[in-house]
Every structure is written in structure tokens, then in C-alpha cells.
Amino acid sequence: MANLAAVVGIGQTKYTTKRDDVSIAGLVREAAVNALQDAGLTWDDIEAVIIGKAPDMFEGVIMPEIYLTDALGCNGKPMLRVHTAGSVGGSTALVAASHVQSGSFKRVLTVAFEKQSESNAMWALSNPHPFSTHLNAGAGGYFAPIIREYMRRSEAPHDVGIKVAVKDRLHGARNPLAHLQKPDITMQEVEESFMLWDPIRFLESCPSSDGACAMVIANEELAEQAPKPPAWIRGVAMRSEPTMYAGREEVSPQAGRDCAADVYQQAGITDPRRDLDCAEVYVPFSWYEPMWLENLGFAPEGEGWKLTMEGATSLDEGGDIPWNPSGGVLSSNPIGASGMIRFAEAARQVRGDAGAHQVEGAKLALGHAYGGGAQFFSMWVVGAEKP
Amino acid sequence: MSQPEVLQQSFELGFTYTRSVGPVVGRFLTELRNRNIVGIKASDGRVVVPPMEYDPDTAEELSEFVEVGQEGEIVSFAWVKEPREAHPMDRPFAWAMIRLDGADVPMIHCVAANAESDVATGARVKAVWADETIGFITDIRCFELA
Fold it and tell me: What does pTM read for this prediction?
């Protein structure tokens, strides 16, 4: 039986295209300092630091965690770097949580970041290989055929992805930290935007952002003394599977289903749409909302798109299960941090501290991240009430 | 069955990254362009050159810049008898840890000398500036014996 742990501090940077005013160290530092301030703590109160980011090729700094020890106050403390591709922000938070749940540490700092302006993620994700044509297709090129297969199977109307693209940007317009600020976005504008990877349009894709996110996670005793309400960690789960194998279900990966079942079981959730108040789910391309609604059990197979079209996932339409009230990955995407932002935003909701994108009365929220070829999954459920 | 031909192909993987140095290292490089060398004062009073962004002991953000001397002394060194193409000099020279006057920690740079026997721990050196300074560490072309 794990010990209780809770999020007692959250810090983020304002997500934007280019933070050329700071070094990589300055960027992670900003989020970490914001998290310490939110928790009313100083560097001395932290026992260990868990850091995560996506592939080193993204900035071309190999093992950046070594260079970041000074910026994160790690001297004389244990420091660990986590890497699980795009899901890394989520799995980093889970590794940090496990440090506390195990009873080994009382209070840890966890940070995730990406400074996309220092390179080109599309190149880094699909760099050239010998004896091959260089496709430079990036993540969109990988996911486009999987999305098309979902559209074929579900017979969903053509504008489901367009609706998600609008909905998440309207959510993002409520969140001052969101990179894209598009309060006047329309379905027509999305539909007319450039087709990047058919069927994925430009405005149905995530932006390329610089940013960092940090959290302080504490044990039960210290969480109860925290100045602001803690977000109690009610369930944690990670699953992975190979990128490719014969018969792999790529539209709704088994690892995602298993991960969700595990985290729901720990949190006592039997019907996620009914039992959860909101969810922050990794949706980098718009169609992944209906796909994950099904994979995560919010809707039966083939019917996820109906929730989206009914407005069930929209704050602005008064939906019963808002997805990505912060604006999600579609509004801000510092890749290595994006998963942690989902986890942190879920925690902000149950702390009642989400500002203009607060889901009223949120008590139980899901944070979700996926990475690689939709093969690494990490999830947590956080609650306002101590279990 | 014929034997397969084992193929190989030359393969170059490269990308031009952008690096933002931030306000502290940025100040150091800007000062080099003006032919000044600056360090930063740490929480224990030591002057660190080149400057670092965060204190090694307290983790606090550092901001007190200190101009240091353009002369100093060699703390330790390695003699390069046969320079290669990538080296900064085409004749024998020393890589040296140089503690500049007013600094408490050494920094690494190259030292021009006629012979290995001229270089020693404790030897005094002075900076030689490049003809044109652009905000690179190579704005200091080298150090020479003072």
C-alpha cells in the first residue's frame, strides 16, 4: 500500500514561440521558482529533483539534466532524468510521485521543459536515415493515417476535428499562459486553413512552443500543512507497447486502455464520464479527442465523436465533462512539458485554482499523456478530497 | 544462392541549432566584444569567471557582475607539442587554467609560448585580443606570458 502524496505547488511559464531572453536553464528555473512560490517553499525544503524532457535531439544538448543542476538547486541532492518521448511530462510527474509514495522522500520538485525554438522538432523526430528517402514527415505524418482509419471506422462527420480545434482554442483564450490566443476563431477559419498532413489541417495541429512546467509533490503530513489546498494523488499508472507489431491496434492502443483501467481502479472510478469532473488529455491533433474519448472509456467504441459534437467536452457549451479546459496541447506545446502541463492543470482544477478556465466545483480530474507512436501512456487521477 | 553484397553508405546527420545564452553568459560575451572580462560574485564572495547563472551553494540567481583583470596566473596547464588542425594555434602552445586578477576560480584558454619550459604554474600571463571582436570566447585570441 503506497503512502499518500499530493501536489502542493504548481509553476508554469507563459508558453510562447520563442523565449530568446533566457537560456534553457533560465526557462526551467522560472517554472521551478513559480512552483516553490506557489507552495510557499524555498530550495532547502526540496529533497530530490525529478526532471523530464523529450529527445535530446530537440535542442541538441545531450544530457541537459547535468547542466541544469545549478538552476534547479540540485547540488547535494538526488536528481533523476526521465524520458518517455512525448508522454515524458506525465511519466516524470509519476516518477516524482513514486519517490514520495514509497516513503523515501518527504517532498520533491519535478520539472519538465522544451525549448522548441532552439531547433526543429519535425526534423528531430524524422531525421534522415541511410539508404532511405528523407520524408521529414514529423508526428503529423505518423498520426495522419491512423486518424483517417478512425474516420473510416467511426463514420464520424468530417468536421469533428474542426470542432475540437475551435473548442480547445476557445478554452485557451481563457488561460493567460496558453501560447495561442484565438478568442475569435471560427469553424470556417479552421476548415480553410492549410492542409498539412491530409486529413490534418494547420489549425487542427498543435503549435511549437517554448516553456516549462513544475510541481512540488509532498507526503501526507507536509501536504496537510501546505498554505494552499493540495491536489491528492488518487491513482497513478503507466503502460507501454512496441511502436509496431503484427495486428497492433493503432487507433485505440491496448496500452492506453490498460493504463486507464488501472488508474480508474485505484481511484474508484467505474464510469469516467460520470465520476470525473474534467480531464486534461494529450490531444496534439484535433481528431485525437474523439479517439481518446473511446480509448479512455468516456464513450463506447465508434461514438467518441458524438460527445464532442454534443458539446459535452466544451466549457463554453456547458458540457458535463470538459476536456482540456486549459486549451490543451492544441493551444500550447512545449513537447517535453506538455504531459506535465496536463497533470498540473488537472491538479489546478481540483485545487480550485484554475482561474477563468476553472470547471466549477471540480473535485476529481484526470491528467493524461501519450508519446512515441502512441505507445507510451501515463495517467494520474487527482482529487480535492484525501482518499 | 549468391552471397549478398554488404553495403555501406556515408551518412551525415546535421542540424543548425539556435542557442540563447541568457542574460548572464550574454553579458560576459557582450563585454568580450568591448574587450572587457567580467565575472560574477557568488554567495560566498568568490568571483567566478566566466560567470554562472545560479549560485553553486544556495541556488540563488546571481547578478553582481565584477570586472576582472586582463592579466592573471597559470594554475595548471597541458603543453600541445604538435598542434592539429582544430587547435587554435598552428605552433606549439599550452592549454591552461588561468586565474585572472580579481577572480577566485580559473578559466581555460590557450597560452602562446616559445617553449614548454617557459610555461609553469604561477607564471603570469596577459590577454591578447583579436583584431575584430564579435562576442565569442575567441575574442581573446590567446594569452601570452606577461
Answer: 0.95
